[in-house]
What we know:
Helix content: 10-25%
Radius of gyration: 25 Å
Strand content: 25-35%
Structural class: alpha+beta
Mean pLDDT: 82
Order of helices and strands: HEHEEEEEEEEEEH
Low-confidence stretches: 176-185
Largest sheet: 11 strands, mixed
Amino acid sequence: MIGxxxxxxxxxxxxxxxxxxxxxxxxxxxxIKHNPWELIIYRPQNTEAINDIRCWLKVEDMDGNDVxxxxxxxxxxxVSIPDVVNKYQRTYWLSGGVAMHLNIKPGxxxxxxxxxxxxxxxxxxxxxxxxxxxxxxxxxxxxxxVIFVYPGTDExxxxxxxxxxxxRAPKYFKQATIPDMKKAE
Length: 185
């Protein structure tokens, strides 16, 4: 009788101990998942002159209402100085080498970027149309992690006064890998 009672206590203790180990182990290794309400918009570096020209983000809901500053908050960092997060002072802009981090309320949104004609210096004054982008639809139910903004070019490779927003990096953009860096040395 005492032996069966000891066995029950031992099995209960063992079950509790194994449960504790399972809970402890799963807490140490949480699932890594992308938060669908976080989006990074990256503008890769180009030539020095085009890097300095900013483009400004505009976000609309699907009814056409501007929600840039009501349903979104943003910070930015320079890719050359990672892990230094900056808060935007007034408007949400991008320049070459900047990654914008957006926190977005759930929903579907139309995103565009543009550069007003008076902010296009040092490019020639005869091209004074506003530089506009295509419209990018972002849905928090089917989220992207990163989208890219880069200047459009004509068939000869010259900048043509427009921006492109895409889920794919531009053709010229290539992430340096460690073997590539060793070849350069």
